[in-house]
Description:
By secondary structure, this protein is α/β, with parallel strands linked by helices. The chain contains 15 helices and eight strands. An eight-stranded parallel beta barrel has the order 1-2-3-4-5-6-7-8, surrounded by four helices. The longest helix has 20 residues, at 148-167. It is globular. The two termini are 16 Å apart.
Amino acid sequence: QKAEWAKLVNEQTTTKDGMHVELAANIGTPKDLEGVINNGAEGIGLYRTEFLYMGRTELPSEEEQFEAYKEVVERMEGKPVVIRTLDIGGDKELPYLDLPKEMNPFLGFRAIRLCLEEKDIFRTQLRALLRASAFGNLKIMFPMIATLDEFRQAKAMLLEEKDKLVADGVTVSEAIEIGMMVEIPSTAVAADLFAKEVDFFSIGTNDLIQYTMAADRMNERVSYLYQPYHPAILRLVKMVVDAAHAEGKWAGMCGEMAGDEVAIPLLLGLGLDEFSMSATSILPARNQLLALSKEELASFSAEMLNLDTADEVEKQVRETFMK
Ligand code: PEP
Ligand code: MG
């Protein structure tokens, strides 16, 4: 099976009915690039930049960040690279920031909420990203957006930093797409409002499922509620994809669900444009997608939204596609 998959390294991901979807990889550091390239990713769908900030005693400098972002876009040779701005807090702590302990860190001061307040930290990262954009196909995405106002503030700060750099004679790409993670239910439910202002969505199911089901993603006792195939989750995915397409934008997914063999037929049927996953999942996912028809799956997925439980959805997918 491994040998079969290896033949697909340089192939495009085209479904049985001739539709192209993008299979991208999630990375945490430039060191992950080798696996990404060896496994034939068509891009990077999520670069989790928080690892640049973790395991050390002070913030990374603009220069250090610039070097890391530049290395990633250069080595991807023009393929799309979605870089997520700092997503700290919740399960990811930064001891040197000395943030007060919170009762509910997953519902607290984290990610974009922190960046909009700690403006120096955020602007330093934005400048590093803008400078790196000149070296490849870099896209920027903001994590944990809950309201349109947050997206607008983050985007405004990005554009301000861009204008300053350009005024100083620094080369910045004119083609940077600016998108957001959909991982808070408010943004999925109101995706039509966000779709008018973003360039793309990337659905973060790890958090979206946790927040939709009100079940801590780290807590074993409630892990039975962590149900990617629940019709509630599938309906949210549909809302996001439909809202994006209505505005001519694209919608991807960078949560674990995107690389899951049961979820893949459902997501293809719902019209997802980009699937971003760990590098080792790419070739099996490509192999699976080559044999699926997007058009046939559209009606199948629509039916799945009306089943009663996640178990029923899973059973249907397995019986229909995995025998
Ligand atoms: C997600 O929430 O699905 C996601 C991709 O981000 P992280 O796992 O880093 O929270
Ligand atoms: Mg997340």
